[in-house]
Amino acid sequence: MRxxxxxxxxxxxxxxxxxxxxxxxxxxxxxxxxxxGQTQVGVGEQKMFVxxxxxxxxxxxxxxxxxxxxSWSDVGFGEGxxxxxxxxxxxxxxxxxxxxxINNWDTRLSQVTSHSIAxxxxxxxxxxxxxxxxxQGGRVQLWAGVPSYDNPDIFDSSAVLLADLKVATGDxxxxxxxxxxxxxxxxxxxxxxxxxxxxxxxGLPLTMSFLTSGGSWGALNFDAASLEVVPSAGTWALAAxxxxxxxxxxx
Length: 251
Prior knowledge:
This protein is an alpha+beta fold. The protein has a single domain (2-250), classed as Jelly Rolls. 14% of the residues lie in helices and 34% in strands. The chain is built from 2 helices and 11 strands; from the N terminus they run αβββββββββββα. The protein has helices at 2-17, 233-250, and strands at 46-50, 81-87, 99-102, 107-116, 122-131, 137-144, 160-169, 179-181, 186-194, 205-212, 220-230. The strands form 2 sheets. Strands 1-2-3-11-5-9 form a 6-stranded antiparallel beta sheet, with no helix packed on it. It has a 5-stranded mixed beta sheet with strand order 4-10-6-7-8, with no helix packed on it. It is globular and about 50 Å long. The relative contact order is 0.21. The model is unreliable at 1-16 and 236-251 (pLDDT under 50).
């Protein structure tokens, strides 16, 4: 019986290693949210967020990206417009695929998942970042909690920053990047975090977020995001033991 239980535990642990991407629309290929008179992003086009019909560029804009949160705060285009959105212009061999871009400084896109954080879990995240030219910088982050309702470019006061990966081109001077971006190509950014016992993040929703930093020259591109949850060893052990006793009862 001990050998059978051990085999079951090993099997459970192995299944935990093949975690699934919990993000919706991770590659930004879903149709954009539109207001009346707006159209989807065509091949070779780039469209920024424009909410109000009286603003310049409304007809050539989009309202939002499915499953991703952004702010409408005034950043130079007037309340209701942001120089961020979706592009299908070829970048680094992307062809006519769709990806996100952010030009406004300290502007972010975030996705709040349905996952409630537990002790011992490991979160593995990745996203491809593309610098269009020199002197560009940004961040890729994992949070426990949600963006502020009034301004989603900042997080609620109860939120906890779990991981902060700094990305920038080699000539960037505002901070030392964790990953140096080669210009004109896609660079993969990887981050991982483990939740310790007693963490204030426990019980809060898991959120992935990324932004273009203040002072960046031009837009950063983002594509192919991934966020995986690896349960704690104890969770798999309990699941394996429960499965073992169900198996025994069935026999």
